[in-house]
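Here is one such protein, fold included:

. . .
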Amino acid sequence: MALDSNERPSKPIIKFESMLKTDDVYFFDAEDFEDIIHHYLNNGKISLAKKAIKIGLQQHPHSTELKLLNVEVLVFENNLEIAEQHLDSLQLLDSNNEEIYIQRANIYSKKDNHDAAVELLKKALSLAENNFEIFSLLGMEYLFMDDYQMAKENFMRCVSMDEQDYASLYNVIYCFEFLEDHEGGIQYLNDYLERNPYSEVAWHQLGKMYASKKMLQEAIAAFDFAIISDDSFIGAYYEKGKVLEKMGKYNEAIGNYETTIEIEDPTSHAYLRIGRCHEKLGNYDQAKHFYYRTVHEDPLLDKGWLAITEFHYKKGEHEKALYYINKAINIDEENPLYWKKSAKIYTALKNFDEADFSYKQTVELGNYELDTWMNWGNVVLLGSTDYKSVIQILEQGVEFYPENADILFKMAGVYLMDNNTTDAIACLTNAFQLDSDKFYLFQNEFPQFSDSKLVTDLISDIKKASR
């Protein structure tokens, strides 16, 4: 198994690097070469690992372990055919070496044949029981296959073998979350904490689990224990701040976010959270100050630009809101949220042509939310009498929301404005059957039609047919 990447270079590594700087050739044991190669692989120094493998095989041409490390590098560099040829040769010499099956599994995994990779890893496990690395690899393969139950079980085995293996612990919790088994995740973490009461990582994850279950007091307690275990654990302060926000304790939330800034370099996310808390408290100058700091710290954070834009929009400062959303669009013109906010601002400014263009960009960039289609239709209605264009927009929306009565009631009204009674009746009938309680939407938006004989007779017929 590979050495810890944080381990200090050992004497063989120092000796090897000294040799590379001279024309001398030093002799190393095969085990020394293995340690040297693992060190370079763990630190991402592939070229040095390859040099060590080459010299190592020159000095120890029959070393199976060095040959397998060579295969590992070949697989890493996607030289899969050559790697398989080497494995074929090695398997003829040592068919019971689990590392051969592990590397074959890695090859199949790279080829997206995860079922075959799992079978090979199971074979490796039969040759080397309770092998930590194999359980970890099995867990990853099951994740690739979206089999979160089996992934969870294998990562649990890793944690049971090494309770300080936080990578596997995170994966276990990820599986619980994906399986929406929050109760199971909470129980698992509480059991883990019985054995490891000062694990800040486990307390932090438990707090997030409680928060997802809206068990806010329990979440706060868990984050407090994480902080007691490690008072420099930024994640615990940040997540505690988020929970305090949900509880309406904005001043306390600000205190926790400020602590994250004191411990480490400030982040745009912390500034944004502080700004939102100040806005909720009515400290508008402070809120604006922190929103500006957010976008200064990270000009690419869309939430920052949207927050400062929304801040001015709420205050009725539409020109300022437009200025900042345009700055955001200039930074990232392919962000649909920016264009959607731009459309909203142009609508408030009664610039319906620009609002129409912004909604078009929003949709072209992949935002297909219901309110996008509805508001786009409204904008075209406000700016023109081009009812057919409005119908075309709403028809696209119906493709995404065929069972939504809101958009169908709206489309029925536009059809009536366009004197298309046949399609209007079809839409109104469909909408009423989907959700008759939403008929008030049609009545409010199209009062000129809601009491017409056509509509009242149609509604009466639908009600009779449904009895």
Observations:
- The CA atoms of residues 241 and 253 lie 4 Å apart.
- Residues 397-467 form one domain.
- The radius of gyration is 31 Å.
- The longest helix spans residues 46-59.
